[in-house]
Amino acid sequence: MKFPKPHTLKKISQLIDCAFIGDDHFPVLGMNEIHVVEPGDIVFVDHPKYYDKALSSAATIILINKKVDCPEGKALLISDDPFRDFNKLTSHFKPFHAANTQISDSAVIGKNTIIQPNCFIGHNVTIGDHCVIHSNVSIYDDTIIGNHVTIHAGTVLGANAFYYKKRMEGYDRLKSGGRVVIENHVDIGAACTIDRGVTGDTTIGEGSKLDNQIQIGHDTLIGKNCLIASQTGIAGCVVVEDDVTIWGQVGVKSGITIAKGTVLYAQSGLGHSTDENKSYFGSPAVEARERFKEMAYLKKLPEIFKKIK
Length: 309
Known about the structure:
By secondary structure, the chain is of the alpha/beta class. It folds into two domains: 2-93, MurE/MurF, N-terminal domain (Udp-n-acetylmuramoylalanyl-d-glutamate--2,6- Diaminopimelate Ligase, Chain: A, domain 1, 3-Layer(aba) Sandwich); 108-289, Hexapeptide repeat proteins (UDP N-Acetylglucosamine Acyltransferase, domain 1). Helices cover 15% and strands 31% of the residues. It has helices at 9-16, 51-55, 82-93, 288-308; strands at 2-8, 19-21, 27-31, 41-45, 61-64, 75-78, 108-109, 114-115, 120-121, 126-127, 132-133, 138-139, 144-145, 150-151, 156-159, 164-167, 170-173, 179-182, 187-188, 193-195, 201-204, 209-210, 215-216, 221-222, 227-228, 233-234, 239-240, 245-246, 251-252, 257-258, 263-264, 269-270, 279-281, 286-287. The N and C termini lie far apart (68 Å).
């Protein structure tokens, strides 16, 4: 998430009331999670296990809960609770504004686009040309939809990321300031849910087709011309490359890459990245040929046991 204008390190430190290490005028351009940070971004880290990763990332401002040596060319924000202060920054730069109309006055809707009754379209939403948005679709703030997109009834675009920190008093939610981006010629079935990014974008690539009842987690990137069948759940921060096929009731772990041309057979549970143009099956999923061999061997066990007796 980029800020509307550059800010200084000192200004940001004042917003969250914390100490800093670096020049007062060190430029701060935005804030992002570690997998999408760029120079000028703030990233937060609150566990020693991830200090080195954050300090060596592309981010040039690290919001951290311990004084450490500051890498050359970077700056530190020293906080007793980086998670809390990251939320403060999200609330400041991307505050929630309640709606007072069914379709926000700030929404931009393209030519020949049909919006069926009972849809909600939030602030700063852009919908392209020749789209059909069926009834009871909810499109949250800042969503971007391209041209020739069809979205069926009951789908929700832009709900909060499922991202929580466990504290003594309960779970604390990391606030979501990102977007959902739907590219051209995408079809989305009924009752799908696509969560917004925490600070970046959750993206559905051009030409991809989603069946009914699919969940796409925050900051996940779906490539071009993918097919995803019903009741599939894809966790946050997954990269699905082009031309991937995912059949029904597949579950996908967060933070992995599904390589170009991968096929995931129905009811598989994928917990690792895949290789290009290969098929996977099972839970945990392995290459389909290997799984089918295992199944064939298992069928032979009764015969083998009889021979042993």
